Amino acid sequence: MIGPERAKEILEQALRASTAKQTEVRLFAQDMELTRFANNIIHQNVAETDTTLTVRAVMGKRRGLATTNNLSAEGIARAVDSAKESALRLPEDPDFPGLPGPNTSLAVQSFDEETAACSPEQRAKGVGVICRKAKENGITNGSGYFRTGMQEMSLANSLGTMVYHAGTIADISVTAMTEDSAGRAQLSAWKVNELNPEAIGDEAIDKADRGRNPRKIDPGEYTIVAEPYVADDMVFMLAWIGMSAQSVQEGRSWMNDRIGQQVMSPLVSIWDDGLDPAGSPMPFDFEGVPKQRVDVVTNGVIGSPVYDTYSAHKENKTSTGHASPPGSGLDTSFPLNLFMAAGNNSIDEMIKSTERGLYIATFWYTRPMHPRDAVITGMTRDGVFMIENGEITYPVKNLRFTQSYVKALADVEMVSRDTRVLISEPFGASRVPALKIKAFNFTGSTV
Amino acid sequence: MDTLSARALETARLRGAQYADVRIVHSQDEDISVKNGVVENMLTNESLGFGVRVLVDGAWGFASSRDMTSAEVDRIVDLAVKIAKASALVRGDPVKLGPSVTSKGTYTTPIQIDPFTISIEDKLNLLLQADTNMARVEGVSVRNGHLTFIKEHKSFANSEGADTEQTIYEAGGGIIATAVGGNEVQRRSYPSIRAQGTAGWEYILAMDLPGNAERIASESVQLLTAEQCPSTITTLIIGAEQLALQIHESCGHPIELDRVFGTEAALAGTSFLTTEKLNDFHYGSEFINITAESIRPTGLGTFGWDDEGVPASSTSIVKDGLFVGYLMSRETAPLLGLTSNGCMRASGWNRIPIIRMTNVSIEPGTWDYNDLIADTDDGIYMESNRSWSIDDKRYNFQFGTEIGYEIKNGKLGKMLRNCTYTGITPEFWNSCDAVCNDQYWFMWGTPNCGKGQPGQVAHTGHGAAPARFRNIHVGVMK
Questions:
Q1: Which residue among B9, B181, B414, B442 has the highest number of C-beta atoms inside a 10 angstrom radius?
Q2: What is the pTM of this model?
Q3: What does the DSSP 8-state code read for residue B240?
Q4: What are the pLDDT tens digits along chain A (447 aa)?
Q5: A95, A105, A133, A12: which is closest to A310 by C-alpha?
Q6: Which residues of chain B have a CB within 8 Å of the CB of A251?
């Protein structure tokens, strides 16, 4: 761990080395360890220590970027020079507003000493319990990972911004497979003691056990009761294809022509909040701007996309603190701390209220087909069951769907009161509920 | 052998490792992207670090760091050994690696022009010229262009005596025109995200980005009012770039032997190509010949040795339609009584090597493309990938392409938008009745192949030529 003082020293050293008109320097450090298991044994087990410095040099309306993990004086100077040299050779970007700041950020607690110090033996112990129970229950392939570690991000710029945040991550994912069935479970937190490996393993094993001897059914339109993993896929995909201000400005977002309208069910609210410790908080964005809560959907009414400084400047607005990492390939802004509102129902109530439908654990390999309508294709995975007359009656084989996620969220009939935190790699997290959706379009089945 | 590697291997031996290897990787990247005539990103990136992999008590441990000091080498080796001992607490049969690997030598990607010697101005001028040409077409909403260059120097040494060094160059680039109108967002790209290879600046010049800019811009606008792809069962001719991704997803992944053995089940999934099918399963029709190799020029899977020190090689995967080979590692190949064909690759110093595609390609057939179109009475031609999705066993797939054309009476007809097709992998490949010849064959790349936990992005090569498939379900969209 670098710590705030050492991080500040490195950032100030980089700022001093720069002769650009404006300079932004960002330090990202991580110590991550991941224990991976498959076939009911640990087969991969890894650790990584890295620190990367990113320099953004600004010369008027021009800016260049350089990153390095060489934190020697020479390495820092080379990155600073490279960023400035790049900037000098580029044509001007008339829309570039300059760096934001000075900014400070709120302190948000998401660092846990026990999680940061979690040892390979502790993770092996947790994995061992999962693998033992998998074997005892006839699971031929218990697989997944147990990840722990810490990340630090600090950022300074020549306008006076100096921010730092350290957070820990604990994440367990289990996929249990038999010859013809599978079940999955995942839970994330920033405190490792909030994760119970045995309970997470049991959840996956139970689905795999109940999924044996699946039947093939015809594709078509079904009511679905979907676990939180499905809602996680939905909010991430909607973020990817259109929660950024840039995507709306360019007319390629599902939010275009829908802002202010009641498009989804009144039960659906989606927002981004980097300050809420109930998720995986991060108090500032990748240009050091404090994060604000942005209501993307409120009771089914489409609200606002998220902004960084660049996209906000185009509309004479201020950044909401959602700048994405420069050079990441993402739009200039991106929501990384998404929430979907809890409801008042249990999953059991959703099942009991369903005359005929499908219980879905997970979506897999989802890809956009029509971004403006948010039409997505993908597969079900790791647990699909038929619901008849309010009861789960038998497991079914996986299906392919082709479905507008906007339309699906318009058809939400019930939302669970329990929500689950799911952390994505390398950044971002969601806290989402289970959903009952009246109509969902399945277009194919697999062997 | 450098002193860091020697120290790491000796320390691992003293700590009780039965096997150890160390990779030192120094990568330099340059990315330039232009959007609507202004530079969106101009990024240079440098990363240096080392990773140590040890086998202790028959189980694996791996640790890595950017800090190249002796003290850190000792700490990382200690950590790797500690991790391996923890792995051994939940172990199966002890890991066996088959025959020793003692490769020695150096390898450098053969390039004509070092891309890092070309000025930023020259690179930008190329992109801006293409941008200007796209901007001439009225109705284009967003214009993108990008160039990517990579130079990676990697040393590998193991406790069996292997000691290799290699320098791999990559160059890639392309342009995209996006048109927005009504409720439609349509794009055309050239050549594609898959235009990346182990090559120098000459690879970029050969693309002629400015010369193709106006055409794709015009096509993106025309797509806004083109007819929707019909929903039907028909004959489908797939362009080479789209077929390259079809090979990647429906052949390249299911022949990864780690997937077959279930060790990627949690994320990537497993495979329908289980071991009893080897040499006893008709993956495709007689016209299908697929090869995995790491030796063809410009392939993103071309190198001197894999990240276990196994030399580059060529393996037949599908021969006249019969499934005959896998992508293998030192640990998995002996389980089939075979030796590794060198497919273990890590995305950087901070990741372990896992089985990855090298260059998995369909071999050229005999057809001239124009004759193939002329020979098709009724069908659809699709090219340039837009979306892709496939199940975790690699059976059920659905792809979308940027553009399509109706084929009527042996001629390309009206343009089609939102083209999609879906199928089941072996049924699909067995429906192939024609593959175009080497005049239409190109080594495409896939620089964004995700696998592993923690995640790794691999760069893989895929040679492909246009091919024809019968009775394909097209037009899946709601």
A1: B9
A2: 0.96
A3: H
A4: 899 999 999 999 999 999 999 999 999 999 999 999 999 999 999 999 999 999 999 999 999 999 999 999 999 999 999 999 999 988 899 999 999 989 988 889 999 999 999 999 999 999 999 999 999 999 999 999 999 999 999 999 999 999 999 999 999 999 999 999 999 999 999 999 999 999 999 999 999 999 999 999 999 999 999 999 999 999 999 999 999 999 999 999 999 999 999 999 999 999 999 999 898 899 999 999 999 999 999 999 999 999 999 999 999 999 999 999 887 888 999 999 999 999 999 999 999 999 999 999 999 999 999 999 999 999 999 999 999 999 999 999 999 999 999 999 999 999 999 999 998 776 789 999 999 999 999 999 887
A5: A95
A6: 141, 180, 185
For B395, the closest of A37, A143, A446 (CB atoms) is: A446
Closest CA to A100 of A330, A277, A333, A304: A333
Is any Cβ of chain A less than 8 angstroms from the Cβ of B60? yes
Contact (Cβ atoms closer than 8 angstroms) between residue A150 and residue A116: yes
Give the burial class of B179: count Cβ atoms within 10 A of its Cβ; 0-12 exposed, 13-18 middle, 19 or more buried: buried
Instruction: Tell me how many degrees the CA angle B399-B402-B406 measures, rounded to the nearest 5.
Output: 90
Distance between CA atoms of residues A184 and B80, nearest Å: 29
Q: Which of B104, B159, B136 is nearest to B304 (CA)?
A: B104
Among A277, A425, A82, A309, smallest CA distance to B46 is for: A82
Q: Using the beta-carbon criterion (under 8 Å), do B476 and A66 form an inter-chain contact? A: no
Q: A35, exposed or middle or buried, with CB in 10 Å at 0-12, 13-18, 19+?
A: buried
DSSP result, B99-158? S----EEEEE---SS-GGGS-HHHHHHHHHHHHHHHHTSTT--EEEEEEEEEEEEEEEEE
Residues of A in contact with B120 (CB under 8 A): 86, 89-90
In 3-state terms, what secondary structure has residue B333? helix
Among the partner residues A43, A47, A70, nearest to B83 by beta-carbon distance: A47
CB-nearest to A124 from B90, B121, B477 is B90
